[in-house]
């Protein structure tokens, strides 16, 4: 099982021949991901990393049967790339690109509504199902195979959590980097729900940060669904000042609900096992599984 | 990106939004000149002198004053220009005022009482749509209204596929209790405002107050405009409105070096790869008994140049008593980062605060060895908990 990506995923890379696309596509191939080709408009017919390059996602899907796409297209063209992938019938679109204008994402997200497609990101590290497929930019070796699902807004903090989980003798079923932008395709709650319904996932780690209400929404959903699997939560930015953007476009405290303290309080109310320190995520998972 | 009130009003006006007219000045003499010009253009005999800084609460802080003649314009501009204006948003040190906006008086008496309203447009992140928020409680802090009288906040969500429709603007204007000419003016005001919001790729508009004048005109008395940084590439004219004198000097310098840095008030500096881990590192500093002196994300390629630039910026902050470097090496190898740290340290020469380098991920052990064999006064750690302990020891 696992969610979103697995050994049967047929992956294409949009922005295949650019420097980011080339580097991370080779890393994914090395990991064992089934990368079946890529898209760079105008370079169709060429071969890159021993795989075919197509002019459009439509061409790539028709020739390869691709069902997953990873996007490395520059910010100005990324929303267009997302809509193109959805139109061509791709089922899981993972957008790594950072810096897409909010207005573009708003339109892309509307365009995807009602279509049978899941968008992950943008501004995210991607998705990994250890031992099966890495569709992202994360260091694969950090993610040991196991039964803990991870949902996170951050890249390196996900690696940190996966590392602690691995050192605690556990492993990861699927780790989903949902992204740090104000508008993202899959919310914390939606990602948690996927893992909750995955029979191979026994516990879930949800890593959030200041800004927005996704963590609160996810926590309330977990409670409403009877806390059927233990969920561990960590919120970064307990010391962040209001009104300042902390790196991620979405990491900003506007109102009272945006703060780490408010999110932690809601998680506690909803029976989430809160890790107060980023150094205790692994231990908190172990304890939560024993209860 | 934040811009000044006078810049925001100019943008609004160019999209047909009626504003309180005004002209900007950077000396008392210039203020007098523009006041005379404003008198000739609008007939106003009273003038509002408004400090132009990137912070709210300027009125309460003494940065907005009414001048009833030209002499008072000179006097008040002289007072306000150059002052350290302290508001609830500036911090205790305040912000220096470099410019004043001389604005027309719009609260003149007439057929009806002037009345203030509140209007804003922003992104509703949960829904992924823009929302117009309005309230009859003009001039008040919207957070306060939301807390005490949430029923007084009107919200209208805009479908991005079709944009703002006429009936929606009318709905808001009716809900504000307007009628007759003022109603029509408000509908026009809201429509023009939304047009400006979308065309400029803004992330927030806050017009507080919006005024209904005694002769039933609707106009923006104040304007806060926040532009989407990610969209500035397609608005070079708006990008030019950036005023770096409003920003922290170290933050400007860091930006030029390609680092994402936010200055804070604490005593432990930090340098981290990735925004989420950087926030988490600030939190661990706090949990170790310190206070973070900054947020600093060096991005994916933590090398000798970025580390050196980061060191130099952190060390310019006199409050820093220790520095924690926290890098999770994924694609970037820890031994390379460690070599970068050693090289940067040597380039800078003497560093008089303890440095804790925590490297985890690819080649973490090799990284720790590079640090230990360097002979520098640098402590290394691999596990995050150890790093926290070492910060505690350094502060003891």
Question: Can you offer a commentary on this structure?
Answer:
The complex is a heterodimer of chains A (291) and B (396). In chain A, strand 8 and strand 9 (133-136) form a beta hairpin. Chain A has helices at 19-31, 57-64, 75-87, 102-112, 156-167, 188-196, 214-224, 260-269, 281-290, and strands spanning 11-14, 35-39, 47-48, 51-54, 68-71, 92-95, 118-120, 126-129, 133-136, 145-152, 172-177, 203-209, 231-236, 273-274. Chain A starts with 10 loop residues before the first strand and ends with a helix. Chain A is α/β, with parallel strands linked by helices and 291 residues long. Chain A is globular. The relative contact order of chain A is 0.12. Chain B is an alpha+beta fold. Chain B has three domains: 1-19 and 108-246, ATP-grasp fold, B domain (D-amino Acid Aminotransferase, Chain A, domain 1, 2-Layer Sandwich); 21-105, Dna Ligase, domain 1 (2-Layer Sandwich), CATH 3.30.1490.20; 248-395, Rossmann fold. Chain B has helices spanning 5-14, 28-42, 70-80, 142-148, 166-175, 180-199, 236-239, 249-256, 275-287, 304-315, 334-348, 364-373, 384-395, and strands spanning 22-25, 47-51, 64-67, 84-85, 95-96, 100-104, 115-124, 129-135, 153-158, 202-212, 218-220, 224-227, 260-263, 268-272, 294-297, 322-329, 355-361, 378-381. In chain B, strand 16, helix 11 and strand 17 form a beta-alpha-beta unit. The radius of gyration of chain B is 26 Å and the shape is elongated. The model of chain B has no long low-confidence stretch (mean pLDDT 93).
Summarize the structure in short.
The complex is a heterodimer of chains A (291) and B (396). By secondary structure, chain A is an alpha/beta fold.
